[in-house]
Amino acid sequence: MSSSLTYRRARASFQDLAKGLSVSVLWFVVIVAVIFLVIGMLVQLTTNGGGEASESIWENSAYATRYFPLSMGIVITAAYLPVAIASGVTRRSFGWAGTATVIALAGVMALLEAGGYLIEYGLYRLADEVPTFTTPHLFTEGYQFWIIVPEVWIVVAANVAAGWLIGSAYYKWSWFWPTICLPLLLLPMLAVEAVMSVGWAGAVMENLDIERLPDGVAVLVALGLLALTLAGIQRFVRTIDLRPQKA
Amino acid sequence: MSGIEIQNLTVRYPGDVTAIDDLTLKLEGGKIYGLLGRNGSGKTTLMSLIAAYRRVTEGTILVDGQEPFENEELTQHICLVRDSGDVVVDGDSVKGTLRRARRFRPYWDEEFAQRLLDTFQLPSKRGVAKLSRGQKSALGITVGLASRAPLTMLDEAYLGMDAPSRYAFYDILLEDYIENPRTIILSTHLIEEVGRLFEQVVIIDRGRLVVHDDTDSLRMRGAAVVGPAVAVDDFTTGMTILGEQRLGGTKSVTVYGEIDPDARAVAADWGLELSPVALQDLFVHLTKGDPA
């Protein structure tokens, strides 16, 4: 089997996935930007007098940028595996395409988040304020995009991968067993969240008095867990038979 | 040339359902095959295995001497259209569906695809979800034919299409097959309509092979005997009768079984006409049993 053929087919499959998901992602970005940046910032700035540290509004967008991509992950197998196989793509190539989709989608969210924090920081500074964060992060200031990007990228990728795993399990086994095993399917994502200990997971870990790993170690361990998760999903996807057509 | 060899293939589904039962079959490349069987006889399962939609667990399937499952060199040259649904994504448009096929199918013929869209009057900008049942089938057929895959399988691909569209499909398929020979497997229940396209017929029933033969040879396995009622009754005595019709003093009886030259001479003497039996009558006879 030529690896260049696998690469070409995986790339084509990724392009197909990217094209299919792009409209939803674009709308999501616009909606999140409008809701959190424009409305949130206006409300915050008009209710505060200025000159004090103020809570970041944009920090709350982290929930949306985690769970919307997770839902996108759920449809990867259900919507695109059948059409990929019907187009002569192997599950192996599709697995690579799915992996690339997870990474790319998380990358888009990381850039969105980093951009949002940067803009928010600038706007707060204009009002002589400094945004503060209510949950732990690897970064301390909103302008530190070089830290924000990897933090968000890793966490969101773990969420999209969780969605992909859940969607694949539901596609393969229908609803009963995957529903029973849902906590197990979420474990890889929870493990990454726990290791990274940022956002809500960081707050939980703090409440539990569990000390966070040093940043570099946390990032490396989380990347390792993410790689294992994606490799596991790829293996899993290769076992999936296409469902019969509905009458 | 996309020959297919199937050895001792068995597929069991949960609930003790045997979809394919120890099937052994060899199909040469470069022919149009009719794959016939009653509902639930295993046709779709068989084609799904050939197209690597499912993994073979018992027995073997070889296409051009290779196993298709997870074999990208091979699967890019195999196209199975099952009722159109697999080749489309909800929310996609007709244009988007063709774009995908162009991306994945190495022998994709865009001009031919556009011609098929025109023939089936498919609006390229319309969303797949807004297409009628017949239009979705036509889209599936468009993808199936314009892919020009060396092994093309169409599983009841015409569902919901009106008669003019179906006949246009048959004509185009035949014309394109002559210009671009390849292996085509058509699964259908409209045997009389599609039968003229088949070079060979494979009939399976309850997952087992019943018949694999040239269409003409198969049709010669029986005969329609037409003539004066008394002479027809005398001639067909002791034969396996598949069906009979009577109009005044003339009777037509369809019989199963080879009619030797001597018997044919007798029939001629008695003023009886013998013609090949209708494929559908043979199919019904060969697969009759409990209702599916």
TrEMBL record, chain A:
Keywords: Membrane, Transmembrane, Transmembrane helix
Transmembrane segments: 21-47, 67-90, 102-123, 143-166, 175-196, 216-237
Superkingdom, taxonomy of origin: Bacteria
Name of protein: Uncharacterized protein
Organism: Jiangella ureilytica
From TrEMBL, chain B:
Database matches in SUPFAM superfamilies: P-loop containing nucleoside triphosphate hydrolases
Sections of the chain in a coiled coil: none
Keywords: ATP-binding, Nucleotide-binding
One GO molecular-function entry: ATP binding
Pfam families found in the cross-reference section: ABC_tran
Domain ABC transporter stretches: 4-231
InterPro entries: AAA+_ATPase, ABC_transporter-like_ATP-bd, P-loop_NTPase
Domain of life where this protein originates: Bacteria
PANTHER family listed in its UniProt record: ABC TRANSPORTER, ATP-BINDING PROTEIN (PTHR43158:SF5), SKFA PEPTIDE EXPORT ATP-BINDING PROTEIN SKFE (PTHR43158)
Protein name: ABC transporter ATP-binding protein
